[in-house]
Amino acid sequence: MAITLRQLTYLSALAKHRHFAHAAESVHVTQSALSQQIKELERTLGATLVERNPRGITLTATGRDVLARAKNVLAEVRDIEQVARLSMTMPAELRIGLIPTIAPYVLPHFLPLIRAQNIGMELGIREAQTDILLSELERGKLDAVVIALPSLVDGVIETPLITDHFFLAGRPQALAELPQTRLRPSEIRPDQLLLLDDGHCLADQALAACGIAPSTPIDLRASSLTTLCGLASAGFGFTLVPEIAVANELRATADLQVMRFSGRQPSRKIGLVRRSIGIKAPWFTVLEQGFKQAFELAIKPAKARPVAQQ
């Protein structure tokens, strides 16, 4: 039979009180129950740990050695329990994943906010495509991910954060040739639309927004949104830029201009996703609030831009 934590706890109590009745009272069991567990521990170890006498007990040499190690084990158990309790507030480390069309635009706002509230917490940040992040979330390598919703996977809980609208981006001269009123995504021809490489969910969202079938052959694709904006500013076509990225891409790219669509503007839902195991811990609420603030800061410059007339 294996040694149990209960037996080590009883041995520690017995060594402290030097009396079976007093030790049993301290751990809230009967004297006979405590005595039985000590005997079982001795049988398991094949050694006498306690010398019983009319005035109390005395630990044997082996008993003293076992007690020293038992105290170490019990201390480690208490540490484990404390870690679990702290994890219900804010853990010492959190591992968060974000897709590439979100991370560079939101993290500069999010990290200072979360650091100001939780200075001692260590954050691990992972940037990858949606399928990779969801796989690592499922395997426990990540605690939460920020992606476009829905995730379309089982076993997760999705918390919406923001609706991220798309702007049309291109060279000013090219945008001037489009209708300046009642601009609709469907007016963008497939051969004019610049997309991200396969695997980026933003590519599928852009196609859907413009009513283009995914099978439509499109030659110009890129691995980053910044590259797409550079191609658009050079006159190779148009691309769709998420609202959270507008301020950054306009600063980074010369000769780039953006326009809002009129009517029902194309958009994507962005959310925070966690595994559906256990209750909603406070750390998840802290992340949720922090990301919501960060997204609002990211889109603030774009909100001042007018919508095309109806």
Automatic annotation (TrEMBL):
Keyword Nucleotide-binding on entry: no
UniProt gene name: oxyR
SUPFAM superfamilies registered for this protein in UniProt: Periplasmic binding protein-like II, Winged helix' DNA-binding domain
Family (UniProt): Belongs to the LysR transcriptional regulatory family.
Protein name as it appears in the record: LysR family transcriptional regulator
Domain HTH lysR-type: from-to ranges: 3-60
Organism: Amylibacter marinus
Keyword terms, alphabetized: Activator, DNA-binding, Transcription, Transcription regulation
InterPro entries the record matches: LysR_HTH_N, LysR_subst-bd, WH-like_DNA-bd_sf, WH_DNA-bd_sf
Domain of life: Bacteria
